[in-house]
Amino acid sequence: MNPRGAPGGWAGTPVRRRLTLALVLGLAPVLIVGALQSYIASNREARQSQSELAAAAERSAATARARIEAAEILLQTLAPGSVGFQCAARLAEIKNRIPGYDNLIRFDPEGRVACSAAGAPADPDRAQRPWFAALASGQPIAVTSQGGVQYADRPSILASVRAVDAQGRFDGVLTAVLDLDSLRPETLDRSLPNRSQVAITDSTGRILSATGVNTYPSDLSAHLTRTGSQMWFETDRKGVQRVFSSAPLVGQEVYVVLSAPSQNVVSWAVFNPVSAILLPALAFLLPLLTVGIVADRGVVRWIVYLRRISAIYARGRYSVRPVQAETAPPEIRQLADSMDLMARTIAARDATLRQSLVEKEDLLREIHHRVKNNLQVISSLLNLQERSLGESAARAAMSDTRQRISALALIYRALYQGPNLRRVELRDFLDELIAQTVLAESVRGAPIRTELDIEALEVDPDRLAPLALFAVEAITNAKKHGLDKCGGVLSVAFHVRGETAELVISDTGVPGASAAMVGEGVGRTLMTSFARQLRGEAQFAANEGGGLTARLIFPTPQAGDA
Predict the structure, then answer these.
(1) What's the pLDDT score for residue 1?
(2) Exposed site from 184, 274, 398, 539, fewest CB < 10 Å?
């Protein structure tokens, strides 16, 4: 939440936030360059991975074909002598010595088993099988994954050669059962991409052997071709995008299919977090953090410190010095010295102003004192003049004038004796004014009793003068027309009611007699004039038991009013 009067928007943005934004904008190119480099490296590695995958498929197929060709050579070597009493023993010895062979079988021209290294399944239709018929018709070699019956417990292929007698006639077939796992390349091969999977399939796309079946799609037949290796992108059975490469092993019968993760920017970043994410992030965050700490320790904290010093100066404590800024950078130290100089200058000027104000207050008190003395001199002169007059009307007029002057003198005495030369506490002032006015003449009859109900309020001299003179006129009128004759009660009340204030002066008058109203004479004229000076109004009403109530209603003086 901004302090009152603080600007909004960019102008109200703190220095720390501005520095952070500037650093982010300045270091953004580093992050962008890092992202571009990661993207380029990802594409380059993806292309390299695809090339390696295709080459690996070709190498795997070539290796498997070499194994099959080696089996064919072995079979051609064994074919002429693979008959007789020791046939099964010889084939079993060869199978045990050379890994990768599940079985070696010799068939006669009708497809019956002549001998085998590990037994052979019965197949009445073997002579009619395509691979056997091809060999019988003169084809020297046949390799197939569809032997018609299951020749081994694990997925395998049959590599067969034609056998002939001394006259060159067809004399049967010698078959080697090759385990497909022995033809499948190892996934630990360094030439394969990371997390690659290997599978061997038939021409229909059916997976015969695989390291991870779920990493292949359900249908591979559309991508198997004898023309060479093929590469394509497709989702596996888990819905993960992968890249595949296939190559034929044995004609159109068996294929090797490699599967590897499809390389993109995200996956490359996951598998290469240091170069893809960590290094660009560090290149961005470390300068940001370093400069942020330096800015905070070297600039922001000193600004906060100087702001606290300024707040202390704002409370008028100019004696505090920014001593901690002596270890600050030169610019901050110069600013602190300027603030210290400013504070000492203000303190000196403030002392001068206070001294001048004290002298002016002393002079003003002296002026008020002298004005009060002069008014008392005038009141004394009027008193002397009153004694020399013989007519009662003239003496009464002179007495009224003297009381008005005494009221003004009381105002100036209250000003120079009070703590404030500009305002007077109304309750104390009216208490003294009422006592002075009531006791100004001796009471002929019973004494006058006063009842006061006055709220506290500070009033400036400009309003106090008409208010005091109104009270003097009202009290004087009450004394003349009732209180001086038989005594009674004089009630004075002052209340503040929100935006208006009310002064009420009432007397009991002469019991049983009609109240003497303020007529059109000098008293009523003066009281109405005093009410106008206060921007109020004067009201007069007779009391039921006798006497008169004078009411002055005017706007309540505020503390800030002149």
Answers:
(1) 43
(2) 274
Pick the most confident of 279-293, 428-442, 533-547.
533-547
Instruction: State how far the Cα of 552 lies from the Cα of 296, in Å rounded to an integer.
Output: 66
Structure tokens at 454: 């006055």
How large is the angle between the packed helices 392-417 and 426-438, nearest 10 degrees? Answer: 150
The number of residues in the chain equals 562
Bridge partners, 48 (sequence order): none
Give pLDDT tens digits for 360-418: 888 877 887 888 788 788 878 888 887 777 777 787 778 778 777 887 887 878 777 77
Does the fold of domain 445-562 match that of domain 10-271?
Answer: no
The DSSP bridge pattern shows strands 448-454 and 488-497 to be parallel
Burial class (CB in 10 A: 0-12, 13-18, 19+), 92: middle
CATH topology for 10-271?
A: Beta-Lactamase (3.30.450)
- The C-alpha angle with vertex 189 and arms to 210 and 206, in degrees rounded to 5, equals 15
**b (16+ CB within 10 A) / e for 505-543:** bbbbbbeeeebbebeeeebbebbeebbeebebebebeee
- Structure-block tokens of residue 542: 């007779």
Q: Looking at residue 313, what DSSP letter applies?
A: H
Residue 80: per-residue pLDDT: 57
CATH dotted code for 445-562: 3.30.565.10
Q: What is the rounded CA–CA span in Å between residue 298 and residue 519?
A: 83
Q: Kindly give the interhelix angle for 522-533 and 461-478, rounded to the nearest 10 degrees.
A: 150
Residue 318 sits at φ, ψ, to 5 deg, of -85, 0
- The whole-angstrom separation of Cα 443 and Cα 453 is 23
> H or E element: which one contains 144?
strand 141-144
Q: What is the DSSP string of 489-550?
A: EEEEEEEEETTEEEEEEEE--STTSPP----SSHHHHHHHHHHHHTT-EEEEEE-TTS-EEE
Number of H helices, E strands in the chain: 14, 17
Q: What is the CA radius of gyration of the chain?
A: 61
In angstroms, how far apart are the furthest CA atoms of the chain? 190
Q: Model confidence over 75-134: pLDDT tens digits?
A: 666 655 555 557 777 778 777 877 777 888 888 888 888 888 888 888 889 889 888 898
